[in-house]
């Protein structure tokens, strides 16, 4: 019996989009970390092994370690934007 490939749901995608809208460079480090925890949970729910989930985990670690000195915020938003585009496309083609 083959394992069925997990598909993103509209609710998951909407949650990811909402979290993305909350993220801005002006947020405090704590707010960024809290939002990234939520983003990471959504991405892992969709797929534990996705590149998006892995990349967010890497950036999350950088943000935790460097705090205010973390200067790779555009990478975080880029990964989330890429995930949204990818899963939006997946959802569009399965419905």
Summarize the main sheet: none
Number of strands: 0
Mean pLDDT level: 90
User: How far apart lie the N and C ends?
Assistant: 24 Å
Number of helical stretches of at least 4 residues: 4
How do the SSEs run, as a string of H and E?
HHHH
Q: Unreliable stretches, pLDDT < 50, 5 or more residues?
A: none
Instruction: Bin the helical content.
Output: over 70%
What radius of gyration results from the CA coordinates? 14 Å
Tell me the strand percentage band.
Answer: under 5%
Query: How would you sum up the global shape?
Result: elongated
Structural class: mainly alpha
In short:
This protein has four helices and no strands. The protein has 95 residues and is mainly alpha-helical.
Secondary-structure topology with pairs:
Elements: H1 10-22, H2 29-46, H3 51-66, H4 73-94
Question: What can you see in these coordinates?
Answer:
- This protein has 95 residues and is an all-alpha fold.
- The chain is built from 4 helices and no strands.
- It has helices at 10-22, 29-46, 51-66, 73-94.
- The protein is elongated.
């Amino acid at each position: 019996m083959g394992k069925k490939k997990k598909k993103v749901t509209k609710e998951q995608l909407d949650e990811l989009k909402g979290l993305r809208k909350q993220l801005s460079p002006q947020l405090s480090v704590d707010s960024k970390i809290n939002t990234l925890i939520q983003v990471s949970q959504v991405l892992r729910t969709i797929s534990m092994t996705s590149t998006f989930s892995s990349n967010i985990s890497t950036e999350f670690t950088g943000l935790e370690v460097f705090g205010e000195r973390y200067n790779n915020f555009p990478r975080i938003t880029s990964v989330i934007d890429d995930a949204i585009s990818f899963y939006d496309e997946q959802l569009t083609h399965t419905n």
